[in-house]
């Protein structure tokens, strides 16, 4: 929030037990007051992929957990990732145990395409969890393949 942005006060009504739980939670998270915590909750709610326009350009992650023993699932996931290679910036694969893998796809593209990829992963037999988490990206930002200098490059 910029210094010049006008703050607007408004009231919220909640059951006593809910506000007590909320106060404990925000205290544990280190918030100085309810307003800071509510602003962060609001920002987070606005950044859910379901609240964004399909053509917005975003960056984020698709996190999935799957059973790698399910017939052809690893191959199917790899083929799907190749199909969406323009949207996938990076991947991380972690073996959770003998049966389960956690995979994180760092993605960038139109919300609609990223949702489509997440949904195609979610419905595969053996995938226990697949979630898309996004944040805004400036429409005019350079693509991930664009080179830009950093102070250490000088």
UniProtKB/TrEMBL annotation:
Q: Where does this protein hold Ni(2+)?
A: 82, 93, 95, 101
Q: Does the keyword Metal-binding apply?
A: yes
Give the Transcription factor NikR nickel binding C-terminal domain ranges: 59-135
- Give the required cofactors: Ni(2+)
A Pfam match is NikR_C
Report the GO molecular function annotations.
Answer: DNA binding; DNA-binding transcription factor activity; nickel cation binding
Alphabetically sorted, this entry's keywords are:
DNA-binding, Metal-binding, Nickel, Transcription, Transcription regulation
Quote the function comment for this protein: Transcriptional regulator.
Family named by the database record: Belongs to the transcriptional regulatory CopG/NikR family.
Name this protein carries in UniProt = Putative nickel-responsive regulator
Species, as recorded: Paenibacillus ferrarius
């Amino acid at each position: 929030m910029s210094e010049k942005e006008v703050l607007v006060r408004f009231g919220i009504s909640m059951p006593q037990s809910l506000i007590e739980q909320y106060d404990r939670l925000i205290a544990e998270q280190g918030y100085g007051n309810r307003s800071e915590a509510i602003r962060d909750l609001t920002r987070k709610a606005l950044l859910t992929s379901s609240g964004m326009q399909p053509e917005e350009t975003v960056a984020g992650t698709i996190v999935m957990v799957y059973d790698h023993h399910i017939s052809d699932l690893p191959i199917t996931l790899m083929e799907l990732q190749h199909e969406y290679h323009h949207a996938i910036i990076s991947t991380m694969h972690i073996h959770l145990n003998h049966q389960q893998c956690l995979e994180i796809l760092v993605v960038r593209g139109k919300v609609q395409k990223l949702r489509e990829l997440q949904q195609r992963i979610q419905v595969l037999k053996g995938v226990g969890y697949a979630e898309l988490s996004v944040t805004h990206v400036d429409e005019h930002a350079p693509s991930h393949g664009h080179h830009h200098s950093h102070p250490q490059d000088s």
